[in-house]
Amino acid sequence: MKWLLAAALLTAANGAALADPKLVEIASFGEHPALNQVAEGFKARMAELGYVEGKDVTYGFQHANFDRSLVPQILQQVEAKHPALILAITTGLNQAAVRGITDKSIPVVFGAVVDPVVAGIVPDWQHGSAWSSGASMLPDFDASFDYLKKVLPGVKKVGTLFNPGEDNDTSNMELIHKAAAKAGIEVVGVPVDNPNDLPQRVQTFAGQVDAIFLIQSNVVQTSVPVVAQVAQRIKLPLFNSVYAPDLKDQLAGFHAISYRKNGEHAADIADRILKGEKPADIAPYVPKAEDFDAYVSPKGLAGVGLTVPEALKDSPWLLK
């Protein structure tokens, strides 16, 4: 009888262990509305896939407050919890994870990474690494310039800001120059590696370009209100590759990839890994047309002395 009781208890214990929810740790470079959308989209899609929070999965969240010196510490804290999977948000944080997370049995799914191949996170666009795959945010600058030509017929020169020390920004700049050449538009890139320098750098666009289009750059995206203030002062329409509803009256418009959808696509990959697929067998997700949104702000255009073109007066792009 004793051995039967012991077997029953062991079976019950094993059942309880199997029922324990999987821990997914979310590590982000910082708290920002766009980056938060990646995490929110991820969790929402996981719920759609059947992962009930508290029952099937639990989430942890750590961020480095946009301080590079804190990233190794954040990653150590995440690894110490021995999660079933890590969602790592932004290019720099994923690059640090490649070097800093020593337990390669913990799979890492990336989000908010423009080009994971150039960043050295995965070997190519057809495969993940042995322990990582995810959803890229590769921009479609061909579509962005088509959009700009509709909003600003006759646009010839476009200014943008970038951090030369970020692989994310380097990839963006290579892609935007290629697309600009095809569109017959000249891109004027101004480097900036410190947010405090943004007002002065934006000022250099005065009289030099027809519009400003912001790429997915961490140093710029965390300070868009500052860029918007200067752009309005020098009467240049400002467009962003990240949609920010609270700035819809200050910016002329957006041709933006959805950070929430990026998180959803990352969740699809996380689901496959949690169900047993190897990250190396999962190709990184490349954004499709439906992952981008186009908006035009009548108030933002009016703020720099422009109006919505007649051809767009009834467009679904118009912001109210």
TrEMBL record:
Signal peptide segment: 1-19
Protein name: ABC transporter
Pfam families, alphabetized: ABC_sub_bind (PF04392)
Organism listed in the record: Pseudaminobacter soli
Key words of the record: Signal
InterPro entries for this protein: ABC_transpt-TYRBP-like, Peripla_BP_I
Listed SUPFAM superfamilies: Periplasmic binding protein-like I (SSF53822)
Top-level division of the source organism's lineage: Bacteria
CDD domains per record: PBP1_ABC_unchar_transporter
